[in-house]
Amino acid sequence: MSDGRLPVRRRWVRWTIGVIVILFVLAIGWVAIRGIGAVNSLQEVAASSSKLKQAIGEGDLDRAASLSSRIAHHAGSAHDLTSDPIWHGFGLLPWLGPNFSAVSEVAAIADDVASDALVPVLQAADELDLASLGLSGGAVDLAPFAQIEPSLADASATLTSAETRAIRIDADATLPPLADAVREMRSTVTQAATVVGALHGASALLPSMLGAEGPRNYVLAMQNNAELRSSGGIIGAIALLHAENGRITLVQQASVPDFPALETPLPLSESTVALFEDRPGRYMQNLTSIPDFTEAGPAIATRWQNRFGQPVDGVIAVDAVMTETLVAATGPLTFGPFSATEETVVGLLLSEIYAAVPDPLAQDEIFSQAAGALLSAALTQADPKDLVAALSASADERRIRIWSAHEDEEAILSASTLGGALPEDDTQTHVGVLLNDTTGGKMDFYADAAITTSIGTCEGEPTTQVTVTWKNDAPADAGTSLPPYVTADGFYGVPAGSTRTLITVYGPEGAAPSHIDRDGEEASVQTALLGSRSAVQHEVLLAPGESSKITVEFQGTGAGERLTVVDHTPMVDTPETSREQLRCAS
Predict the structure, then answer these.
(1) Sign of CA dihedral 284, 418, 380, 571
(2) In whole angstroms, what is the distance from residue 586 CA to residue 583 CA?
(3) How many CB atoms lie within 10 A of CB 363?
(4) Per-residue pLDDT tens over the stretch 233-248
(5) Fewer CB within 10 Å of terminal CB in the chain, N or C?
(6) Residues near 381 by beta carbon (within 8 Å), at least 6 away in sequence
(7) How many CB atoms lie within 10 A of CB 438?
């Protein structure tokens, strides 16, 4: 006969379950309250950061210091609220856990940036007007750069670390609103790391490169994107710049006919020869076909030195499309019989000029005049703040590449995007698309491209799929309506109006092609190794209006990584890049 009481064991089970439920409810309340506070603090960080950027740009350092203190306070608060054991415990839960971990990591990154990057940047801003980089009257004041280098080095190191951590946050595993916030934060940190890294590089390099320790000479190679090469376009106009005590002057101008083809080609890497035979080593205009600018730069310098005898301290390659951002900074430009604005300069230089001036030698002269006028206007007329913004935008689009003959400088340059070296896979995996015209004309003004990547597993192997859609967008009557100089008029075996292009796709480091097709069918290809990257090259011939789709799957070490970015040849119109769901072609 029972006395109505539960057995001791059952009572203990009920009590234990009850305590666990109460503790879990309390924990949920705890993280909910702290989460709301953390989100509010992070929103204050975002709002103040936008105002801080404006204050630094305007040179209002008192306001910047006040905003910096506010950012540091709110970032520290968000970090404190999301770093206790209960919060980290929720981060271990399935499904919801990645959301807690993401908020915690975002708060920690914001705290580190506020504590260890903002103060050094403000110290640098106090020493040098970051809106002008010391540019005034065509010369750069080099004295402050040595003073700000240590501060910027600290800030750059902090932001680089923050960028690495931000990239590792798996935004795809979080709820949509948080995923958007993580991506926005990641973009902001990357932008800050890029800008401050560039400023640090400038503080370390500019004094010596602009002649503080002795005069320097640089070859300036201007690339024409209407005839594509790996780093942007065929070399058209070329010039020699002289830098001394921060002042830059244009010393000499030349054009491709000044550099006749070599009977004995310059020595080239095996990968360059595998893709392009010895043409880059023979023809000045093809040197920018070389995928790695650490190889192309010294070759361009050698051609100049052998032709004119002047010693060269470095090479700067820029493309024609960056004239758009430069003219936005300088105002309308006049050269030869032409006037150009921000809206018209690219179309004029890469298309209209060929109809207006049929003689190639006259075209070269006008290109040289345009280059000289633009350089002069940039150094003497442009608002320094606008000029710095224009150069930064072009550098972000990989439209500027620099090589230095001085080893200490080249070590810094080659590790940055300005150096134009092939990328290395570290926190991110890189794939790439190189475009080289073999039409012999200027038809790539009408080229259009789209690049998609797909990441996943095929046949049990980690897989990265790269798809390139290439289109000849020239008018249907291009063969007769466009000038022969633009179409090449069949001189190189391509029907007038059609385009012939070498499209090179390279994969992650250590991965090999497992499937290759063009428009769903197998086609003959060239292959090469770019360092530890496999490259596959198709030759594509298209009539006006035609397009072709190339698909390459890579499998092996480095493939299948979610954080995969696409590098590509800078075109007149930037290719659309996107991520799609993987459909295994193999």
Answers:
(1) positive
(2) 9
(3) 21
(4) 999 889 999 999 988 8
(5) N
(6) 330, 331
(7) 19
